[in-house]
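Could you help me review a protein record that somebody else here produced? Here is the record exactly as it was handed to me:
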Amino acid sequence: MSGCTSLQSSATQVGGVRMTDARPVRDGGTLTVALNADPDKLDPSLAQTLVGRTVFAGMCEKLYDIDQRGTIVPQLAAALPKTSADGRTVTLRVRQDLKFSDGTGLDADSVVTSLLRHRDLPGSARATELAPVESVRATGRYTVQLKLKEPYTPLTGVLADRSGMVMSPAALKKYGKNFTNHPSCVGPFRFVERVGGDRIVLEKDPNYYDAAHVHLDRVIYKPIPDGSVRLAHLRSGDVQVGDQMAPVDVRSALTEPKLQLFNSPSLGYQGIGLNVGNVKGLGEKPGKLDTPIARDVRVREAFELSIDRDLLNKVVFQGMYEPACGPISPESAIAPGVQPSACPKRDIARAKKLLKEAGVKTPVRIGFKVSTTPESSRIGQVVQAMAKEAGFDVVLQPMEYATLLSETDDGHYDAFTSGWSGRLDPDGNISNFLQTQGAMNAYGYGDPKTDQLIERGRTEADPAARTRIYQELSKRVAAAHALIYLYRQKNYVVAGRSVSGIHVYGDGLVRVKSAGYTR
């Protein structure tokens, strides 16, 4: 994973990988990062969005993190976890003398408090990934012991994401449900204010254990959904970093001498979620819906067959992304997923045949919720046109991203643009979404065989055996057509040439701890 991409290079070089910039920087200054959406709750237990994870990267460190090579490394933990011979007892050592942004100290009890909250808080988006944890207790001032219901191979990867974020117990007690407006963690920056739809402001935290290597005074995150507007602000210097830049805007910036590009392959996926049984809301038991796509899998398969993944990539993304047809990225070091060349091709004749066999009246109406970004609008329009040829009437329902999340979590939809930034362990791309009553299963999908395969994948330690399990699981999920995987993004971040020290790895986060200005 080496190489680099400069915005002064030709368009054909965009596929190169450039994750970091190590030029020396000066102390001081404010860095403004333009996000493609307004983050959801700034509460690690409840948050669901990639843009939220980017903000957390500035203020909420985790027990573990990943490095440039995608290797898990200790962050708040002092070392990698130790697991007993039977795989059911895991011991974590926590770094000493760390302080939260509110000045209170971090110890083993703090870690226990956060892990139990992540697992047990009603509505927690972390509940599924921590469900195998039977108990957590402090066995020393800086030692934590987890007892597992069964061996759980993905655990270290889980603790390298939001489930591993440790929150100040004092802040949790003081603010309760309002913690999202007063988040306090350990990080290079601390929370100052949030103005909904406009900005989130962080400032350098003097309590941070590595404050000497934090150069910026402040970081401001501004939601700017329109990529062309983000690019315009980059050109003018009003913002210094543009996150999740769309291919069309990357190409527009290729000849800009004052800008630079960071990119990395994605571990995630993007696609279309279909409501097959979400009648009572997120995480509830699947029920029956009286819609054509919920009643008959043949209708869902026909809808998928109406879409040309290669053409969608060319029309919407300038050919700069990769088609996808499964939950696991080919870039995954564990159980690599399906290669783009193996994805099913568009087949209008078979799609029409399936609709006829299903006995549905055509055109089949599908309400398709999309966010208000230009990119999402283009996706909606292309899918709408393609599906029409097969016998579908796709009605676009554009809305703000936060509203889209709320509506789909509650089950008020037929179809929506559904995506995930990806995790190192394949379980992180599957269990939350496709396990029956999973914490982020907005589709109402429930299948005992799928649940069994998920459990087998979690408990199996042998890499070859896990690969076989996830291959079978991917086929099972593909046959259900509840989540139609369409493409994998590349993580494109554009920054001003005077900015150095930011890092963009395979998880798609913009890390600003060591960021600063070269002049």
